[in-house]
Amino acid sequence: MDANVAQTVILGIVQALVPELLLKRTGRGGKLFQVPKRFSRKFLNRYLGWTWRRATTVASKLPEDWEQQGDEMAFRVVALCKTKGIPPELVCNSDQTAVHLRPSTEQTYEVKGVKEVKCLGKDDKRQITAVINSTASGELVPLQLVFQGKTEAVVPKDEDVKWAVAAGWHLTMSENHWSNFVTMKSFVEKVLDPWRVKKCEELGLAPDSQKMVWLIDCWKVHISAGFREWMLDLFPFIKTMFVPVNCTSKFQVVDVVLKRPLKHRFRQHFNTWQAQQVAL
Q1: Which of 57, 61, 227, 253 is deepest in the core (most CB within 10 A)?
Q2: Exposed (0-12), middle (13-18) or buried (19+): which is 236, by Cβ within 10 Å?
Q3: DSSP state, 189?
Q4: CA angle 183, 160, 171 (to 5 degrees)
């Protein structure tokens, strides 16, 4: 059990058994009673004898010359923008990230003294893939969400996702929910190129000739001959450039800046929903 689950379970129990407690105001500021994570941790530690433990993973290693590679990448992007007249609004960085339908962490509560610690939910397969994107001008490009399934029936189509479709999001599927050659092609067709056309119209540029920069990592699909040839044949105005290998933690903007806020917001919504379910 991780800290978020503990917090929402305790909150749900309070809502079910003593809901009036949540209406009381406490402290100098007169704030409504809450169940902070600190309280949850103390409760689990003191009354259940659980302690907070961390699981470890092996991280990829930065190349020794990563700073030089970063400078060279930046120079290539600037040179292309300068020679081809590409504005910041048309410099886009994209990256994939897994979003757990049941958020989990690599830490959990366990009884004190236990040598083997297992994190339930750490390998939970119930997740989707989000392709997140931003431009050099600070704009967010619509998301692509990849759901797991073999048919379009797994893709949400009810009232809850109409606003996302209207905002330009693309909802699709793959057998294992991961991005692949097919979903990346649909991302370019349904999200990236329409964004280029839209920005050209807003900026008074010609969509049938204006180029853009698409900065992505060296994932096997991105660098495959099939994908690159497909891009050149059908989308010659999108100039694909690559973040150096193992350097995404330094130079991949959406990886460094956007992934954490996205997952944090999703976790907040999940916590609210979970507390409501416990209270039922």
Answers
A1: 253
A2: exposed
A3: I
A4: 5
